Amino acid sequence: MVACSDSLLWELTRNNSCFLKKKNGHTKRSGAVQFSVEKANMTSLNRHKYSGLANTKVANIKCTDDNRAELVVKTASKPNQPKKNYAEIPMNKDYRRVESAIKKHTSENFYRRDLESAALGKWTKVYQANRRAKGIKKPVPCKKGRGTN
Length: 149
Hints:
Elements: H1 6-13, E1 20-23, E2 33-36, E3 59-63, E4 69-74, E5 86-91, H2 95-106, H3 116-134
Antiparallel strand pairs: 1-2, 3-4, 4-5
Helix pairs in contact: 2-3
């Protein structure tokens, strides 16, 4: 297989991909939104910056089945084998240690500095969801209107 540039891959997969979910807005003001359900897409938005297919270096935080977190990065070896193309690094420590590990894997390693803030934001949400699922933290109660008990 011939190696292609990231921008060429993005132009080819931008509008046509099996991972693409298009949501049309009802008005001009709301507009249309395109989501992507790729394995390594950090924000699930169909943008070149976050695309797991069109970038050679990607990072993502995901929740596992046993309420833990994993950092998914694209490996340089075996780029033509999609199943072996990603490395999943388990994040099992406490909040601050995982935060520093994410920083080391993204910005301090010169991997993807632009994804550091998105990765830390997603780690916060995954951490909170895992604590709720384990029963450590109680779920947020629904807000009720005035005059209700």
